Amino acid sequence: MDLAEGVHRALSLQALGQGVDIQLGMAIDSIKATLVVKRRLSCEMVKYWHQAQENIVNLPLANGWGEKHQFFVQWKHIEAKAAACYYHGLILDEGNTEKSHGMAVAALQAVEELLKESKKTCEAFNTTAPLSS
């Protein structure tokens, strides 16, 4: 069952998401990486984690790790969305209009909600068997 095509697809999408996560981390550490680059990477990460989440939901993961793995993918998807909203908000805040500042505030408020949801999903991941911290 662990070698089924759907499992491979979900795991490859997860690997792509984690790879882009590493790229985003490198961009964050780089003084040359612009906000636009960071937003593009975070949006790409959202796409991969979303696809991984869609694929993993349809799999019969009854090996004891299935539910935990689903929480992990969901958690990473939410974090990716928060990063994308954050960088989008920062880009909007660079605008010189009242409207752009208002949209930036709305984006950053969305980030706050996503981080609350991320924390809940992280806690669910940590309390799902097998237990971890």
Features:
133 residues, mainly alpha, 4 helices
Description:
By secondary structure, this protein is an all-alpha fold. The protein has one domain. The chain has 4 helices and no strands. The two termini are 27 Å apart.
Q: What order do the helices and strands come in, and which of them pair?
A:
Blueprint: H1 5-29, H2 35-57, H3 66-93, H4 98-127
Helix pairs in contact: 1-2, 2-3, 3-4
Unreliable spans: none
The rounded Rg comes to 17 Å
- Judging from the principal axes of the Cα atoms, what is the shape? elongated
Helix run count: 4
Structural class: mainly alpha
Terminal Cα span: 27 Å
Number of domains: 1
Helix content: over 70%
Protein name: BRO1 domain-containing protein
InterPro entries: BRO1_sf, BROX
